[in-house]
Amino acid sequence: MRVLAAMSGGVDSAVAAARAVDAGHEVVGVHLALARNPETLRAGARGCCTIEDSGDARRVADVLGIPFYIWDLAERFQQDVIEDFVAEYRSGRTPNPCVRCNQKIKFAALLDKAVALGFDAVSTGHYAQMIDGPHGRELHRAVDMGKDQSYVLAVLEPERLARSIFPLGDTLKEDVRKEAAERGLRVAKKPDSHDICFISDGDTQGFLAKHLGEQPGKIVDTSGEQLGEHSGAYGFTVGQRRGLSIGRPAADGKPRYVLSIEPVSNTVVVGSAEELKVSGITGAEATWCAPVPEPGAELHVQVRAHGRAVPARLVSASVPEPSGAVQTLPSTVDVELIEPIAGVAAGQTLVLYRGTQVIGSSTISATS
Questions:
Q1: What residues sit in the active site (predicted)?
Q2: pTM score of the predicted model
Q3: Was 7 annotated as part of a binding site?
Q4: Is 326 flagged in the annotation as binding?
């Protein structure tokens, strides 16, 4: 197969590319330039897609003996990830930019361009597995649960997953680093990237304040009583406990948490830890990686990339009316949590699992 290896400049994508070469594929490496002004991206290891990363990726390609290119997707990244991030916070939701980047950039813009150029598949360093199942290729969790990235890949449609290769899914991270060292790759000890790559100083609230400006509003309890003021509701997230700027403690002396953010009234609602728990989640824009389960199916759901999966029961999955001869995918999903969880916010991604298999995902629109 002709395989395009996405090379971020880190150890994972380097070893993934090397394994694609070992598998006998015709491999070409590509690094994505995602910043309009690369010098504004953070240096070092706090984020990804830095100037240093492109150099590291090129050196790995030289060692592997494969062609290497840099593709400029900065405009798409600005529109589909950064502007979406700001718009979601403006609307009172809590987005995951890494999910959106995988969906819109790494497995839409990149994969679509690769296919147009005649490549059969894209290889990445994500920790996940594609396994043959009764209904075709299935997306599963990685063997290394501490590094599992199936959550951020759950937004991919089956046709894109069918053209995706994840060579590291069956390997522990420590073994990937050992393999990189044995191959003579200088990135073997390079620290993992973390934080939001396009926020250079790691100050998310400062970034949002710059883009959204000061928007004073009220902090109230569930009865509507005003407890304090804020300079921008976008600076709060559901489940937040610290930095609420409330002048007096609760009547019972227990901590207060952010329960919801109401963008129309620019109000932040706070309450007790018990009020923070939810037992039902509704999601929109559902994507299904596997056949849609019947209502009543028992699954596990996860609402954060590195959060804990909890047991749940599928209540419904709505199916829009067919358009012509083509049946469109279900667009909404409702689940009942068998074990209530706290800190669930609109805008987060809800991912459904059956065992290790990813069933589907949706963007959380409401909780109960």
A1: 101, 197
A2: 0.92
A3: yes
A4: no
